[in-house]
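Quick check before the chapter quiz. The format below is the same one you will see on the exam, so make sure you can read both the input and the output lines.
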Amino acid sequence: MIDLLRRLLAPEPARLPEPDAELALAALLVRIARTDGLYAAEEVERIDRVLARRHGLDPFAAAKLRTEAEALESEAPDTVRFTRALKEAIALEDRIELMTALWSVALADGMREAHEDRLMRLVANLLGLTDVESALARQRAERE
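Here is the expected output.
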């Protein structure tokens, strides 16, 4: 985790290897869930499901990855660096899928607040996605 933090803090971070990209994605999911100051059980469950589905993990492995991500997120740099590292590690079409996953976590607690919307708009922009792509991702997340 220390190496990943060091890479995220580098002025020009290198492309993340797959395990680090998975952990950075999980930490971004945790950051989205914690944005409103409430880390609800529904959000935790949604993060575990996203990680299990995206990485082919069993429930125990997904929960373990989320636990590591919670620690990383609490020590990590700003959201910009997370997102920049993920943008470099993930192809554009996969970033759209990632945005759907992020929206599913943001919406998991049944509340949608202005500061969450602002963070989601920032993340979409930093991932190189348009507001329209983000809105479509949100609509997919709402249907799931």
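If your answer matched, good. The first helix runs from residue 2 to 9.
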